[in-house]
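Q: Can I see a sequence and its folded structure?
A: Here is a first one.
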Amino acid sequence: MITEYTPRSAELMDDPYPIYRDIVAAGKPVFSPAADAWMYGEYELCVRALADGITYSVARGVQLDDEEELPIGIPLLTLTDPPEHTRLRRFMGNAFRANTVADFADDFRGNMRRAIDALDGATKLDLMQDLLLPWAIENSLTLLEVPEADRPDLREWMGIYLNRERGVLGFTDAGNAALEHAMIYLAAVHLNALRKDGDTFMRRILRHEVDGERMSDPEAMGLLMTMAIVGAEDTARSFANILYHQDRSLPADTGRELTEEQAYAVIDETIRHSPSTHYVRRTTTREVTEGGVTIPAGAKVLILFGAANRDPGVFTDPDTFDPARENAQRALGFSRGAHSCLGIHVARLQLLAGLEVLTERTAGRDIDYDSGEWVHAMNISGYQRLQGSIQWT
């Protein structure tokens, strides 16, 4: 029953699509006592909510549970509402344009090559723990401009706090401790280094002025925290889903040699069909009526990307994986409205660059997708462990 939906159920989240179909078919908000939240699944309903940053607030967090331990005085882009959110976004919006981040493609490719080389020819591996998570973490450290001498500690800390446990929505105790170490480094060491003169990606962001002011230290720390926490996990889990669809959903004679356009088509359709981010939470600031249903002020609303991305009113034959789908980019994997993902171009570029190198370096692979360990942490779902074998070229 759709009223039993809750992200707390790992078993339900292993395959939420039967419930998603019913939520979409309802065509209106549905209340789930199990989640103590209203569920939005119909595509247009989700889009309207995402566009209204006044009624639907992120101040209590974007996950199911309230954010009780937010860093005091540090504004996070993902957890601020307009107009503060708008101001923060103006500091960095130009820096994350497609043409601006394109220069990172070689870095992302190089990081994948080094991650493969670090396997020292091993053909049996845990694809997530041995390759994809280390690669995605390295990409984040590259974007953050962490010096090579400081990276071993950051790699260890990030690896620990991205080690999710099935049935646990938040970080593990070890993950929280590792995250604290990483944040102390970013605040006490790295931010000061980035404030020094230099013409680099991060330094240009920190020097950029909005209404005659540069980003304050708390605002800059919020950016560093967001970049350290958000990107790597989504990237790694999305990449595994892309490989799954390459191996399971495409015709056997398709081959893995794809043009850039074809690769992006596979990436975009994966994000639509099998998103790593299944929902974002909002909290209503006022009473609002949608589809004839009145939702009170202060209510939790779960905007279900995973449901909206398979709305048959928008996507023909939505349960079928189809890279030729012309409107795959209408999917909500990167959100919409004021909180649309600032890093969309970085994310897509990472996935493309990694896919290019893995294709280049792989003669064949046999991944045991059916036995992989699937986790659901915060609002992200995906493989945590994924055993298989790869024949390297």
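Q: Show me another, different protein.
A: A second, unrelated one:
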Amino acid sequence: MNKIKINKYLVLLTVIFIVGTFFRFYKLGSIPPGPEWDEASVGYNAFSIAQTGKDEWETRFPLIFQAFGDYKNPLYIYLTAIFIKFFGLNIITIRLTNVLAGSLFILVIYLIGSKIFNKKIGLLAI
């Protein structure tokens, strides 16, 4: 009789990843209600980049985004612009980059913890 060896760390990691991703997507469009000012700024700049290739200051494909007296992460804005281009401008597409990055970092933190220490510490880290 063939026995399938189940890797308990992989099963736990999968469960944690699925639960973590579920809660990141749960009520994504309604909690918190409406966009915060950072989300509005990123959404506006990402929409502008997706439509015209310019930011709110009419700079073509800038490396630095300035809004509300501070600077925004350009990678975040450009990734959000891709989602806006495909799915349209709404609160979910603005938040989607954060949700996907947060879900990905569950795996990254596990991999870092398990490489530096061991699999048990990798699971505890997440």
